[in-house]
């Protein structure tokens, strides 16, 4: 099966079925990663070398197994499709974001705060309606890059092993990549590897968002505002996305009881409920654009 058809099949499967409501391979991987972390980082005493060893033990055997299975001619094509399907979070992104929009439109701010709290790590108890909409829009833009486009990128570049390597690395960053006492040293490798794997995809996503919205403004915000953001990959994605949507994001946010004054992103009015939907449409439009470009590349390179 061609790369284009495999990609389309996986995207279609995600759109139709979404994430499994029962057992999920990434949940099992998370449990395995917890055991590894307990072994290599007891009481938060693990060094960077321990983190590197733990990352290799968690990621490389499963990546190698995926490669071996994908080489079997009888069902290698199926392994490719399933690997990308498991890694994608396109439908899940909408399933988490749209209930926030519904709660805001019903005027139920308490419910909206609760629902956006499932998507972001900041404190949401004191957010007003605009703050909820801002948090939801930021999450859609950033998670669209991490859970959708980066998975597509590594699948296109390196097939099933590439997308498995990326998705497991991204999961470990979410588990170990914290700058706190327990993970400052041990989680260093997970955070740096995830940054490296997301570097090119994030910039392609920033370009994609810009092209599908207010292009000049998106590119300008990317150029001027992204360097001010503390994350080398979230900055370009959210700055370009905010500019493309003509909405203002960023600003003050409370994390773990402490207020952080983040740089302003984008331009235009404060975020509203509709901007969460517009961000979702931007992600979906980007996926369609990437599929069309992949199909065209495969057609003309044949």
TrEMBL record:
Its main location: membrane. Coiled coil: none annotated. Keywords: Cell membrane, Cobalamin biosynthesis, Membrane, Transmembrane, Transmembrane helix. The chain crosses the membrane at residues 52-70, 77-94, 147-166, 279-300. One of its GO terms (molecular function) is ABC-type vitamin B12 transporter activity. Pathway: Cofactor biosynthesis; adenosylcobalamin biosynthesis. It is found in: Cell membrane. GO terms for cellular component: plasma membrane. Belongs to the CobD/CbiB family. This is Cobalamin biosynthesis protein CobD. The lineage of its organism: Bacteria, Pseudomonadati, Pseudomonadota, Gammaproteobacteria, Pseudomonadales.
